[in-house]
Task: structure prediction
Amino acid sequence: MKILFFCPRWGQEALPWNDFLAQVKNAGYDGVECALPEGEIAQEQLRNGLRQHRLRFIAQHWQTVVYDFDEHQQQYEQRLKQQAAAKPQFINSQTGKDYYSFEQNARLIATADRIAHASGIPVVHETHRGKFSFAAHVMQDYLHRLPSLRITLDISHWCAVAETLLHDQQAAVEKAILHTDHLHARIGHTQGPQVIDPRAPEYQEAMDFHLQCWDKVIDLKRNRGDDFFTITPEFGAPPYLPVFPFTQQPMVNQWEINLFMMDLLKKRYP
Result:
C-alpha cells in the first residue's frame, strides 16, 4: 500500500499559488490539502499549478460557522457542492457544531452523503473541536448510530478536550480507527491540540500515543489490501503554533515541523 502525503496550505497563504505548489513538490509531498479558494482566478491558479506540478488535491471544508441551523445547512450544502465540482481526491469536512443536537448534525452528515453520492466525490468528517466530532465519547455514539460514517482522524483534538491521552477511552478510539479514511498527523497533548515541537523529548509520551493510533490505522488498511492511504502532516500556524510573549514570534518553524512529521512517517510506513 502506498502512503500519499499532503501538505496543508494553512500557514503558507502569503505565497502565490504556483510558488507554494512548486515548494510542495520539491519537498516531496504528493499533493495539497486546502479549501477551494474564493474567486475564479485563484481557482484557475490552483488547477494549473496542480496540473503543472503533478500534485493531488484534497479539498478541505471548514468555513461554515454560522449559528442559525437552517442557514448553516444551506451554506454547508453550497460549499460542499463547490468543493465537489473541483474534482478533488475527496473532501475533508469539519462538520456541524458541538452545540447542535444529534438530529441536526445527522442532517448535515446526510447532506454530505447526498452530495458525495451525486458527485462521486467522497466526503469524510474530521474529528475537530467545536464540531459534531469534538470528543471521543461523542464520536463513539455517532459511529454507533451512523455506521456508514467515515472520518478523518485528528486525535490531537480529543486529547485536548479530554485532558488525557485517552487511555481511559480505548473503546472509543478503537471504534474511530475502524472508520478512518484519512489522517491528520499532528501531535496533541493533555493541555492543547499541538505540542510546541514534536522532536522535544518531553513530548515523547504524546508522540508514542499518536503513533500507536496511526499504526493501527495503517495496519488495518494494509490488511484490507487498500492501494493507497492519505496523510496530511498538519502542525498549524499561530496561534496553534505557540509564540513568544511580547514579540509574537513563532517558537518553531511550522514548515520544518511538518517536513519532520512527513519524513518520520515515510520511514515508519515504507
Notes: The first strand starts at residue 2 and ends at 8. Residues 108 and 202 are 40 Å apart (CA to CA). The beta strands are 2-8, 31-34, 56-61, 91-93, 123-126, 151-153, 180-185, 228-233. The two ends are 9 Å apart (CA to CA).
